[in-house]
Design a protein that fits this description.
By secondary structure, the protein is an alpha+beta fold. The protein is built from 8 helices and 7 strands; from the N terminus they run ααααβαααβαβββββ. It has a 7-stranded mixed sheet with strand order 2-1-7-6-5-4-3, with helices on both faces. β4 and β5 form a beta hairpin. α1 crosses α4 and α4 packs across α7. It is globular. The chain starts with a helix and ends in a 7-residue tail after the last strand.
Length: 193
């Protein structure tokens, strides 16, 4: 299957979402999974956030959403960006009718707001997020590109993001390097309000 450059640019914007945790580094044992993506990112020069997202089937719904929102140019820049990227399983938790409606041209502004709520300007590795939580007395406030804050806390060894609506998402994969930032996978889509 051939992927067009426009699709890749659009995918970059969708990967503008990220999540943090302190799980052990992945191994190549799970080829084709997020773990295998992480291993290949460590052994080869990483591509952009878009390249990384397109290259991982666990982010296909995110890539579709980034394309629908026409956000490719957002993450095609130098960055750096931190993306708390919802996996396909995270998107599966969203009401199907709501998700379908968000992917329509009429809801492009709402979809853009949702996707940019998953992106933070600058590069925050998992250790940076954990340090900010510790330095903040147990809570760190991350300002998203969308403008609304995400609250980060620790539950055991896991970083938990709390959105403006009070919903929570766990960071399930951290520090996936890209040439213009870093991706952290999350298990639930965060909502700006």
């Amino acid at each position: 299957m051939r992927i067009s450059p426009k699709f890749l640019l659009t995918t970059a914007a969708i990967v503008t979402l990220a999540a943090c945790s302190s799980e052990a580094p992945p191994t190549a044992a799970d080829e084709g999974s997020a773990d295998a993506m992480m291993d290949s990112a460590e052994t080869a020069e990483p591509g952009t956030i878009v390249d990384v997202a397109v290259g991982n089937p666990d982010f296909s719904t995110l890539v579709t959403a980034v394309t629908a929102a026409d956000l490719g140019a957002t993450l095609a820049g130098e960055g750096p960006f931190t993306v708390f990227a919802p996996t396909n399983e995270a998107f599966d938790k969203v009401d199907p009718a709501t998700l379908s409606a968000l992917l329509t041209p009429e809801k492009k502004a709402d979809l853009t707001a949702l996707l940019t709520y998953h992106v933070v300007a600058g590069e925050l590795k998992a250790a940076d997020v954990v340090k900010a939580i510790t330095d903040g007395g147990g809570t760190a406030t991350l300002t998203t590109v969308q403008g609304a804050p995400l609250k980060a806390t620790l539950e055991g060894d896991s970083v938990i993001l709390e959105d403006a609506a009070g919903g929570k998402s766990k960071v399930i994969l951290t520090d996936v390097d890209a040439s213009n930032g870093v991706i952290h996978a999350i298990d639930t889509v965060v909502m700006p309000g």
